Amino acid sequence: MKKYILSITLFIAVAATAFGQQKSPEERATKSTEMMAKNLSLTPNQKTKIHDATLERMKAMEALRAAAGKGNKPDPAQMKAINKKFNDVLQTTLTDEQKAKWKELRAQRGNGRQKP
Q: Would residue 13 count as lying in a domain?
């Protein structure tokens, strides 16, 4: 009986933690922009432009996922268009040195995701 109660308690704790980690698009955009500002040494003007573009991207992605419905994948073409718009803003906002650093950071991040 004790194991049964302990199992239920553990399940509820894990479920509550998982639901508590969902962040708003604003929070995710701010976190992403701060990471970029730290790694790329963004100017205040660049930071503002990138934050706005990131926020727009996060909101559009969330709306796309909501429209697809729970458990369904959003339309890849629309996701690609949203990402292209975001990347266009980055290309016009970042300096050549920052672009190179961003490309390097993205490559490192991608390598960490690949399966061995």
A: no
